[in-house]
Write a structure and sequence with these properties.
The protein is of the alpha/beta class. The chain has three domains: 76 residues, Arc Repressor Mutant, subunit A (Orthogonal Bundle), CATH 1.10.10; 91 residues, 3-Layer(aba) Sandwich (D-Maltodextrin-Binding Protein, domain 2), CATH 3.40.190.10; 99 residues, Periplasmic binding protein-like II (D-Maltodextrin-Binding Protein, domain 2, 3-Layer(aba) Sandwich). Helix content is 43%, strand content 21%. The chain has eleven helices and ten strands. The strands form two sheets. Strands 4-3-5-10-6-9-7-8 form an eight-stranded mixed β-sheet, with helices on both faces. Strand 1 and strand 2 form a beta hairpin. Helix 1 crosses helix 2, helix 2 crosses helix 3 and helix 5 crosses helix 10. The termini are far apart.
């Protein structure tokens, strides 16, 4: 059999890393080289192939049709090589970034279902609420609240509706349930990640909020929810964050939950081929369909 005529492996690796990460900088971090080295290797690959793989200004490069075709082939080939390495079949890591409270309150309590069906996959959750940075820290997929069109090069799969409303402890609710507006005078808790929550909810509900007896702010939604459950006041939160605590009687949502236009969405690089990440996305959609709907208002 004749010898294969292949271009530089370093050039192929550099190009595949860029196509998957969408950035010279992130590709360089993944390959432990400078972004200048990635750029030079891709240019050398283009010269070897006699084809333009990237187009556009240096700060906003995109794949040409030839580049997209090559990237898809390379991702599949590298995945196959990775799967054939000694010990690869025993375990496959899937790294997903997610907002912390969503991971804690919704994702992780359901994760056993996915693990049982996919015992060979090691799922690692990283806390992150910012723009997804695929490739950094090994991240292959992300969960974010999303309502606009997916950014270029990203595949977006909405899997769970988003709704929000006030929650408080059963003890505080029982003490004031005969006077709904008195409930809204309780200490008002805020999350720094959603500071406009009370104003937005009141506007959607057509209510004018009375002055609270006190106001308290928390860095994370998870801290705020623990404060609510401990009886420190009333807070606006997402149904996905509060569902388990409401269903087990730890929290009460007197006004139910108002739907929002954003949805929890599974994001992946469009050209990346990762079977476990694809199965995880399918599982998320199924879990979203099975999820219970928010309760109705008690008033």
């Amino acid at each position: 059999m004749g010898r294969r005529r292949l271009p530089s492996l370093k050039g192929l690796q550099a190009f595949e890393a860029f196509a998957r990460a969408g950035s010279m900088v992130r590709a360089a971090e993944e390959l432990s080289v400078t972004h200048g080295a990635v750029s030079r290797q891709i240019k050398a690959l283009e010269q070897q192939l006699g084809a333009e793989l990237l187009t556009g200004p240096r700060h906003n490069l995109s794949l040409t049709p030839a580049g997209r075709e090559l990237a898809a082939s390379l991702s599949a080939a590298f995945d196959q090589i990775s799967a054939g390495l000694p010990g690869a079949a025993a375990s496959e890591e899937l790294v997903i970034s997610s907002p912390g409270t969503f991971a804690m309150k919704w994702l992780i309590p359901r994760l056993a279902h996915f693990v049982e069906a996919n015992p060979e996959v090691q799922v690692r959750i990283l806390e992150d609420s910012g723009p997804p940075e695929f490739g950094r820290s090994g991240v292959q997929a992300a969960i974010r609240l999303h309502r606009s069109a997916a950014p270029p090069g990203v595949q977006a799969t909405p899997f769970l509706d988003h709704a929000f409303g006030p929650v408080l402890s059963p003890a505080l609710f029982e003490a004031a349930r005969e006077a709904p507006m008195q409930i809204l005078r309780l200490p008002r808790l805020h999350s720094e990640t959603f500071p406009q929550g009370w104003d937005q909810w009141a506007g959607d509900a057509g209510l004018k909020l009375p002055p609270p007896s006190a106001e308290r702010s928390f860095e994370h939604n998870s801290y705020m929810l623990e404060a609510v459950a401990s009886g420190l006041g009333i807070a606006i939160t997402a149904w996905a964050f509060a569902q388990a605590d409401i269903e087990n009687g730890r929290l009460i949502a007197p006004w139910g939950f108002k739907p929002l236009t954003s949805r929890f969405t599974y994001l992946r690089p469009s050209l990346a081929t990762h079977p476990a990440a694809e199965r995880f996305g399918t599982w998320l959609v199924a879990e979203g369909r099975r999820a219970n709907q928010p309760p109705a208002s008690l008033f």
